[in-house]
Amino acid sequence: MAYSSFPEGILKTVLGRGYQIHPEALKILEAQGEEKVREVLDSFSEKYPEAIVIEAKQVEELLEPPPVGKAPETREFRTTVIGEITQIYDGSGLIQRCPKCDRWIIDNFCMVHSDVEGVWDLRIKARFDTGKEQCTLIFKKEVTEQIAKITLAEAKQLGEAATLERIGQALIGKRFEIGGDKLKGGTNFLVKVIREIK
Ligand SMILES: [Zn+2]
């Protein structure tokens, strides 16, 4: 039952992802549950982007839980911070994305795909000051809708300038507790939950 979603077996899944695998490594993977195998394969491509053959030693390493209290070097980790939003950056609010590559575009023109039919989206990039450090908050559509109390449909009716103004009024100069994923070593912080502190 554990491998119900691996109808073709783990080996085929591995090969399907473009890897070769050492027999010892395969044995270790076969002893794991399905979810664990996917986790290992996902983190393998992140940790060894150049590798072609999966070795047993690497699988063992990836299966080891990270030391308590210390996030793995390149992965996002979830955390909570408190601070003030001091600025909303360009490219926030009602924006258009390229339907092919998801890039932020202006006037239905993508740098890579030239003329396209842009897809409307809502997002915020904001500067956040915790008193100790500054970071860049990134809000995707759902969190943007929630904190600015505006839906994508309403934003399209309001237009870009009015939407941005509404976001600014909801955020700038206010204190928030924010939970989300911070990339270790970077300053970008993907906001998952946000709560105003009054
Ligand atoms: Zn594009």
Question: What's this, in brief?
Answer:
The chain is of the alpha+beta class and 198 residues long. It is built from seven helices and eleven strands. Zinc ion (ZN) binds at residues 98, 100-101, 103, 110, 112-113.
Describe this structure as you would to a colleague.
It is built from 7 helices and 11 strands. α2 packs parallel to α4 (56-63) and α3 packs across α4. The protein is globular, with a radius of gyration of 22 Å. β4 and β5 form a beta hairpin. The longest helix has 14 residues, at 34-47. With 198 residues, the protein is α+β, with helices and mostly antiparallel strands. Bound molecules: zinc ion. Zinc ion binds at residues 98, 100-101, 103, 110, 112-113. Zinc ion (ZN) is lined by residues 98, 100-101, 103, 110, 112-113.
